[in-house]
Design brief:
mitochondrion inner membrane, mainly alpha, globular, Mitochondrial carrier fold, mitochondrion, disordered C terminus, 323 residues, single chain
Amino acid sequence: MSVPEDEERLLPLAQRWPRASKFLLSGCAATVAELATFPLDLIKTRLQMQGEAALARLGDSARESAPYRGMVRTALGIIQEEGFLKLWQGVTPAIYRHIVYSGGRMVTYEHLREVVFGKSEDKHYPLWKSVIGGMMAGVVGQFLANPTDLVKVQMQMEGKRKLEGKPLRFRGVHHAFAKILSEGGIRGLWAGWVPNIQRAALVNMGDLTTYDTVKHYLVLNTPLEDNIMTHGLSSLCSGLVASILATPADVIKSRIMNQPRDKQGRGLLYKSSTDCLIQAVQGEGFMSLYKGFLPSWLRMQSGWITQGHLMRPGTEFSRRFES
């Protein structure tokens, strides 16, 4: 039964345009989370680049001269050597990335939920469908957002290049897009896309499966009820598992995106993500794949808390929109 136009105009915006409202809410929450937690992302990227063994092949002395710093010392070093506001260097393409990623992920997830998977006979959306749908939606969203991720990573390393006496690559965000496009073409904007979508799939898998599993365990086997404490503990565990699964792919992604390139836009250090993985393990040890783990995990936790767990497929809030 359709609602008369006069009555429809009196309805709240969230009821008149539920999907548009959902997208706007997700975008606003993601932007707030991005601004609040971006310094952790910058620190994570700097840590991932430290001690990069492949640089020795180019005769780059930066690997030998760069101090090995933890998360706190890296943050203090950036503030002292580059300035406090440099903790947000690269935040503009990061916000672009969230808009593209959130939009692509949401549209894909809705399509998979309604057209491909569908609900069961009792109108329930099973966990396995939520996990597979979330992984596939994350892959699509991350693939679409790869150019913004590429620019973000490279801009995050500009301050380090300046300290090392190297020329800056970009004058700003739009110059970065234009330069990468002119040197490597459309294909150049998707450098590092393979480990990038792998990371997105692993984050979604670890998050969704662990969150629901831990929450159900706590509700059934402990005195805790289905409240904010239960959600907080579930988020803590899901963020930890997602970070453990995804950090190696994140390290590989960042290094491929930041590597120097020739005039045709081809990487000078790594032929592929597999080559980057092998060089990192052989030259720096297995644990090099977990550089930047702590700020990555903290950022996941603080980001999900900031967003209030609003838009994660399969959680209570999104189920209210999916019913």
